[in-house]
Each structure stands twice: as C-alpha cells, then as structure tokens.
Design goal:
By secondary structure, the chain is of the alpha/beta class. It has 13 helices and 29 strands.
C-alpha cells in the first residue's frame, strides 16, 4: 500500500520496526501474529543482532529459552518471522523518525520514506570505550568486535589477549576467546569486585586466567600495534597507586566496559527522555507496555535500558501486542491478559542478586542466608570449604552431583534436566539449587550438560579404589580421547596433578557440551575442576 502526501509517494505499513535483534524480531512476530503488516529495518547485512555472536547457553527458565545457545534462538526467531509474514530489509539504516510516524531509511545510498501507523524502536546498544595512552593502536578492540570476529567470521582476534571488564560480557567473551584458541593473559577491572555472574568467572578462572580487581590500564605498549599492556592498581578515588604497575605481554586489548542505549532516534523524534545510570544512560520514558510519550511509538530491548537478551525478547513481545492494541487489532482485555503473563516472566528474570535494584549494592548474604563468597567476587572461584557449605553439595557413596552455584541468579535448567528429581530449585528461579540426598543419581549427566553456567559436576568415589571419577562439562576442541593423560587443574586454575580420561560422552541432547569423565587420586576428588590436554601445554 502507498501513502501520498505533498506529491510524494511513500510505502505504508501498519508497524515499522527499527532493529532486527532479539527485541525487534520478537516484537515484529507478535505484531504480525495479530494480523498487522510489519516491516523490520536493520543496518546490518545479517539479521539477529547480537544473537548470532552468542554461542553460550542462555540463563532463565524454559520459557526464557534457557540452555539454548544464542545463535539457535536467532535461527528460530528468523524462521518464525518468515512464517508469519514479517518483511525484513537489511543494509537499511534508519536515519530519522519524523512527525506522523514517517521514517527515512538509507538503502543502497538512496533515501526512501516510509509511513507507519506504529513504530517500534529496538536499536539496542553500543559498546562503551575508555581512553588511555595508546588506545588508538591496532589491537585495541571492543568485546563485541571480538565476538564478531570469532563467532561470525571464524577469525582469532589475537594470540595473547588482555580483557578489561569483569561484567558478564567480559567474562563470556574471555571464555569464548579461550575456546577460539587465544591465551587470555588476565581479566582486569577497576572495580573491587567481579561484576558478572560468579559461574561465568569460575569457568574462566579454572582455565588458568588470573583476575586483577581494582586495576586499570595505564598504557597500551607498542609503536605500530599493541605489543603489551601496563596496568596499575587504583585507590578509592580511582587514582593509580604508584609502584603497583604490572606489565603483560599481549597483542590484543579487549574492552568490555559497559553498553549505552542507542536512543538517538527517539530523542530526534521528540520522545521524552531521561538520564538513568542504572539503565545505561539516556533512555526514553515509557509505560509498562513500552509506549513512549508519543502515542504509537514503542520501544523494546537495550534501547530502553541495558539488560540480557532474554529480557529484550520479552519486552519485544509486550511492545508487539501493545502496538496491535493501539491500532485496534486486539481489545484491551487481550492486551492486559497477554501482558500480565509476559510481565510476570520478565519479573522472574529481574530477581536475585543481579536485580536492577541491587546494582551498586554490596550484598553479603544470599536470599537463603548463606554467606556470599568474597573469594569468588575477588578471585573468581569458590574455595573448597565454601563449596561444601552450599546446598548443592551432598557427599555420599556412589555418583552424585556437586553444584557450585552460589549466587541467586535466574536459572533453573538443572532442575528440569534431572528426571530423578535429585536437584531442586522450586518455583522461584533465583533460588540456589539444592541436592536431595534421598534421591538416587543415575549419572546420566543431563544436569551437567544443561547447566548454562557450567557449574555442575558429577563425582563418583566408588568406581576404583584410591581414585575419584569426575565428570565435567567440556566445550573445547579437539576433544580428548579415552586413555589420554593430562593436567588436573583446580578451581583457581592451578595444576594439582595428573588426570586420566576414562570416558567422553557426546549426544545431541547435550547441545555441544561434551561430558568428560576423568579420574584423579581420591584426595583430589573435590578439588579438580578442569582438564588440560598435554598438547596444549606443549604448544
């Protein structure tokens, strides 16, 4: 359909969506499901936004697509969008939103005007940068750029990488760098505590990567490219403490220092904006349905506040059905009923230690009253004594799970994965997992494979006298083989002895999380948490 005004002809849609990431795609799907004609514009050559960079498994519950990898969620959304008739236009940069919901798009260097009855802005966020001496040298890149290189183009960002930032992005990308064959020389952060999930930090630490908290970059060394990094410790006023400088040999510096909402289009459109540090910066003021101060303009995802992709997808669904209501395609009862379910799902993700209201707070107890590990927050791993103090560990004869999940994060796939109900979380998905000592573990390993944080291990002291068998999640290639001898690493990434591979299990249901069973002397059974192949040591 076309729309004429002042001699110009514009193509008209019921809903124009800006951004084909997780929020934009889910919004477009919900709108199209309700009978609206929807177009999605995205400036990239491939739709899906950040999803196709995310090779790790998502947190949350089944309704949040927990234990699914981001790129698979992206494939699923694109397939659904196509099935419901959503039109996706790529290499299309929206450069302006004007009165009467007119949108100007740059496509192949041509400016094309479109008219929408409703607009959903899901432009996401952009990476923050920090400046330091040498920050413009080749080799200084953002964490998102590193993910693009590795996970979209199969290119190693570097050989020796220093990561600045210990939030979830910094931790996840550090682990993916290791998977790509890079050496991560250190993770540093000016904050005194690790900012991301402890389970993400732990899987990096047990690979041998050290953390330096209360440290920042002083200088990127090198003339024509990065050859090293000088860092230093900071005091309470964020000033470098003289004499604390440390040098790391590195060819790449990866920056994961936060995100800022890409809200410029909304400001240009005249939406009421507010500066909110807890949401990442300048964001639009909107109601519970994502509608801004301008009727018919909605938002979803990081553009309205920085959160995980799981939250962005729920916000997209809400804005999609809200747009359908605003244009008369569904009634108010349908809007309220559907939104109520989605809002409950969104609230469940916003609970626990990492809830928005807890940002910046120093918590010392879990919701259940257990001490929060300071060692985990400062060094990236739980001590053996701390592990045994949590309800996820119940020592017993025979095979049994050891769950090293010590923070209230929204995740429960382990409970769903255990057919014998050995693992209990309950209705609140931020509750700590509890091992039921009365239930019998079969050793199937589904909980190990399902855990998005790779924090579940199976321990068996009954297989062989003098040895403990440990089943660990393993996502590195090449896979070890039965009979291989390698190094046994503890939670801190220190070598504590040798380990022999006794079994390697791979199954479609594990979704590329392999189950590696190694045997170590009995006294190391509750210490060893990673296996390092000898060829890795020799390289």
């Amino acid at each position: 359909m076309t729309f004429e005004r002042a001699g110009a002809v514009m193509k008209r849609y019921d809903v124009i969506v800006v951004g084909a990431g997780p929020a934009g795609l889910t919004a477009s799907i919900e709108a199209a499901k309700n009978g609206l004609k929807v177009v999605v514009f995205d400036e990239n050559a491939k739709p899906g936004g950040q999803l196709f960079k995310q090779i790790h498994k998502f947190f949350g519950s089944k309704e949040h697509k927990a234990k699914m990898r981001g790129f698979k969620i992206g494939d699923e959304l694109l397939k659904t969008a196509s099935e419901v008739g959503v039109e996706v236009v790529l290499n299309a940069t929206v450069i302006g939103i004007f009165p009467d919901k007119e949108v100007t798009v740059n496509i192949e260097d041509q400016l094309i005007h479109y008219k929408g009855d409703a607009i959903i802005v899901a432009t996401g966020a952009t990476e923050n940068m920090v400046t330091f001496e040498g920050w413009t040298l080749p080799g200084v890149i953002g964490a998102g750029a590193a993910q693009t290189m590795m996970n979209l183009h199969s290119v190693k960002p570097g050989n020796k990488v220093l990561m600045l930032g210990s939030g979830n992005v910094g931790l996840v990308v550090s682990y993916q760098l290791l998977q790509a064959g890079c050496e991560v020389v250190a993770v540093i952060d000016a904050a005194p505590r690790i900012g991301g999930y402890g389970v993400h930090a732990s899987k990096v630490t047990r690979c041998g990567v050290p953390f330096y908290l209360s440290h920042t970059i002083i200088k990127a060394e090198g003339d024509t490219r990065v050859t090293g990094v000088t860092v230093g410790e900071v005091d309470g006023n964020w000033q470098i403490i003289e004499g604390t400088q440390k040098y790391f040999e590195a060819d790449t510096i990866c920056l994961a220092v936060g995100l800022s909402p890409m809200s410029q289009l909304l400001k240009m459109a005249g939406c009421t904006m507010e500066q909110d540090p807890k949401k990442g910066g300048l964001v639009p003021v909107c109601n519970q349905y994502g509608e801004t101060s301008i009727s018919g303009i909605f938002v979803a995802g990081d553009v309205s506040g920085i959160e995980e992709a799981s939250s962005a997808m729920i916000e997209g669904k809400i804005s999609g059905i809200a747009a359908a209501y605003s244009l008369g395609y569904i009634d108010e009862e349908s809007l309220v009923t559907k939104a109520k379910v989605l809002e409950a799902s969104l609230r469940s993700l916003r609970q626990g230690m990492f809830a928005p209201e807890n940002r910046g707070k120093i918590l010392d107890k879990t919701e259940e009253g257990y001490d929060i590990s300071m060692n985990l927050l400062k060094r990236g791993y739980l001590t053996e004594e701390e592990v045994e103090s949590y309800p996820g560990v119940k020592s017993k004869k025979g095979i049994h799970p050891v769950i090293e999940c010590s923070q209230n994060i929204p995740c429960n796939p382990c409970q769903d994965a255990c057919s014998k109900k050995c693992i209990l979380i309950g209705e609140k998905i931020t509750s700590l997992p509890v091992v039921d000592k009365e239930a019998t573990c079969t050793g199937c390993g589904m909980c190990v494979a399902a855990c998005s944080g790779q924090s579940i291990f199976l321990v068996d002291e009954s297989q062989e006298e003098g040895y403990t068998y440990i089943t660990i999640p393993y996502e590195f290639l090449p896979l070890p083989k039965k009979g291989d001898i390698g190094l046994a690493l503890n939670r801190s990434g220190s070598e504590v002895g040798q380990a022999e591979v006794v079994k390697v299990k791979t199954a479609k249901a594990y979704d590329h999380t392999h189950l590696l069973t190694i045997k170590v002397p009995t006294e190391l059974g509750l210490k060893v948490r990673f296996f390092k192949q000898l060829q890795e040591v020799l390289v």
